[in-house]
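Email to the structure team, subject: Cytochrome c oxidase accessory protein FixG model.

Hi all, the expression group asked for a predicted structure before they design truncation constructs. Nothing fancy, just the tokens so they can compare against earlier work. One-line instruction: predict Cytochrome c oxidase accessory protein FixG, return tokens.
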Amino acid sequence: MSDSLKNIGVKVEHTPAPSAKGGQEKQVIELYESRKKVYPRSVKGIFNNWRIAFVLLTQLVYFATPWLNWNGRQAVLFDLVNRKFYLFGLTIWPQDFVYLAAFLMCAAFGLFTWTTVAGRLWCGYSCPQTVYTEIMLWIEQWVEGDRNKRMKLDQQPMSFNKLRIKTTKHALMIAFSLVTGFTLVGYFTPMHDLVAALPTFSYGPWETFWIFFYAGFTYLLAGVMREQVCKYMCPYARFQSVMFDADTLVISYDEKRGEARGARKKGVDPKTLGLGDCVNCSICVQVCPVGIDIRNGLQYECIGCAACIDACDEVMDKMGYPRGLIRYTTENAMEGKYTESQIKNRLLRPRVVLYSLVLVAIVAAATTSLAMRKPFKVDVIRDRASLVRETDEGWLENGYSLKIINTSEQTRRYRISVTGLPGIKLEMDKPEVEVKATENETVGVRVQADPQYATKGSHEIHFRIETVEETPVVVEEKSSFIGE
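Reply from the structure team: attached below.
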């Protein structure tokens, strides 16, 4: 019972049968494994260089994007107040939120495809939790020192020096977290307005809330909880196995080559000692940011960062052994069903092809729809306060409000006409309507029809809105005319 419940829930107490001494012994079962703080060791190598590159790249994009300008405005701005999303030259309106759904589907199937091919590379290199945890570790290593120094510092009793070091570390982490929160709000409120209001901190309640909310969770998740988020909170870690198969490229320990483990002197042939190539140095465990031992096989906690590969390769180089005791490979390749040079030939298997086809179809459909999207939209709302009235000439009249949304990056002029009934006429204050770039204008119009054609009931009519330019763009919207 204790083994099966070790990592599940709460503390349970029960009283077993009387012991041989005649009394009863109370047994306590810990259903949650107590946390042991992980002190990741620094490592050098090709995969570590890739991690550093992705951390710098993602943060450069995140922090720099709100400062970019496009046509006199912020290039990327999610203007919730005016219900407009600006993405460089593209303006997304509420009517365009189908593109948001397409983007989310692309992200999902892209993740599924990549996971099926190469495991959790997203987690190891680009996931915000991984990126921010890596930055927090850099701060910790810079302030407290290497792994051994950090462990010794935590074991020391509290002193002024320890308090100073810990305070400095957490102050820097909080400062970085506040910058991330401030930058996040800069995607929803123009960054220049945020900076201008910073000296007096004259922000609205929502801006203030989100700065501190995002900063607080950045500090909590990346600075305090760290690997606990990946192990217990991240849903992706739980369902990733659904996308894995025996041909998925994952980080693996070559048990046949490495066992039996044991220490030995450099230059000694391990076979003479009955040992494998693993020297049992445990450096692969020390560098792991989630504190697992990859030699125990693939585990759901593994985020695929490959720090253990860099560490093991460094040890193999020192011992004069071939690299690759821990490496990226597949289960079938490890079992000898094909050589590792043939791994790339297993990429085009049914699961990968299916995910890829769905991804390509969604991307193609969304791209085609965007390319064919007209530079303006029209919403027609019939005046329901006065359904129908009779004019002085004896014609029937309905009132409408036409909302013209200019989605382009330039000011445009529009002409409006109506069809659907014989002799139908359109009355409006101005013959043309001007709408500024990425703005909208609501125009009131009156439609008049001859009573002999506009009989009692509803009649279908069509508003035609066209741009005033050499090659006009036309949008038609259906509505109804109410007769007597």
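The chain has 15 helices and 18 strands. Residues 1-12 have pLDDT under 50 and may be disordered. Ping us if the truncation boundaries need rechecking.
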